[in-house]
Design brief:
Elements (H helix, E strand, L loop, with lengths): L2 H12 L15 H9 L3 H10 L1 E4 L5 H17 L3 E4 L2 E4 L7 H7 L2 H11 L4 E11 L28 E7 L11 E2 L12 H6 L4 E2 L7 E5 L4 E2 L9 E10 L14 H4 L4 H6 L18 H9 L2
Antiparallel strand pairs: 1-8, 2-3, 3-4, 4-10, 5-8, 5-10, 6-7, 6-9
Length: about 300
């Protein structure tokens, strides 16, 4: 047997047995169920299954949460990021900016919920932070209701596509300007319509102590526009994981603008240069490309 044949044979012997059936949502393997039990996430899993969102408590020590908060404040105050609204600066692309973010994205509780909602092999999609101060002109904050898998056409797949975690470094409640959700909206499997965005029917403010994590699946309607009406700040880390399904087989990221010069606009679209996804600047750095791509997704 030649060396090449021996190597190929060894690779075949190492290949996993094929799986022929897709597990329904929340049909956990024995191993995943054991992790849920070990991490005391049973009630959390049942809550997100029923309501589309949930809470994780005791994900890290108070000392870790304090370090996370201090790091976020230092970075947000020190960088020119983006504004999500009045008094709400945002900074993204955080993973390499401090080791604390590496610890967050590898947290066992986050990874377990991410696998339940986005499957094994889920990818890190975004690491961003916001700092919300007391509103100078509160208003009602309506108008921002959406589902996070906003570049997925409706009806949304039965299998969830995204999960977003908000690590609350300060207490979450209505007065603090916490994220608002519409419980059960994940069962609609669509985007909210214009009237629902304007009126936010059924919306509730999420509530949890500082150091907790509130999260929701990609179909759940929610809004971060609620104004903060009390003194102080709401410091939050936003971490999103996504299902691995739609990555291209081949990557042409190495092709630069010189190669693209003079080529049709359609070539730019095919190579992902005209949307906001998978870019080293993060989604908020691309102006009209973000809302335009979300409109394309509904075609």
């Amino acid at each position: 047997m030649s060396e090449a044949t021996a190597e190929a044979t060894a690779q075949l012997e190492e290949m996993p047995a094929p799986v022929f059936e897709t597990r329904p949502p929340f049909d956990l393997s024995d191993g995943l169920r054991a992790r849920v039990d070990e991490l005391d996430l049973g009630e959390t899993v049942e809550h997100v299954k029923e309501h589309g969102y949930g809470y994780i408590h005791d994900a890290a020590s108070p000392e870790f949460v304090a370090r996370l908060r201090e790091t976020i404040v230092r970075i947000v105050r020190g960088e020119s990021g983006h504004l999500l609204g009045p008094n709400v600066p945002l900074v993204n692309m955080l993973l390499p900016k401090d080791p604390v973010f590496e610890e967050v994205v590898l947290n066992p509780k986050l990874l377990t919920i991410a696998e339940i909602l986005c499957g094994k092999g889920a990818l890190l999609s975004q690491v961003a932070a916001t700092l919300k101060e007391k509103a100078t002109e509160p208003g009602d904050g309506k108008g921002g209701l959406h589902a996070d898998q906003n570049w997925t056409p409706a009806p949304f797949p039965v299998h969830n596509q995204l999960v977003t975690f908000c690590w609350a470094c300060d207490e979450f409640n209505e007065a603090a300007g916490s994220t608002r959700v519409v419980p059960g909206s994940h069962r609609e499997r669509r985007h909210p319509n214009e009237q629902e965005v304007a009126e936010e029917p059924g919306v509730v403010a999420t509530e949890c102590p500082a150091g907790s994590i509130v999260f929701w699946d990609g179909s759940t309607w929610h809004s971060g526009g609620a104004p903060r009406t009390v003194d102080g700040e709401r410091v939050v880390l936003h971490v999103t994981y996504g299902r691995m399904a739609l990555r291209p087989v081949e990557s042409y990221d190495f092709l630069d603008e010189d190669w693209l010069e003079g080529k049709p606009f359609e070539m730019r679209v095919l190579l992902g240069r005209e949307d906001f996804l998978a870019t080293p600047q993060g989604g908020f750095a691309h102006g009209m490309k973000l809302p335009r791509a979300m409109n394309w997704a509904k075609s």
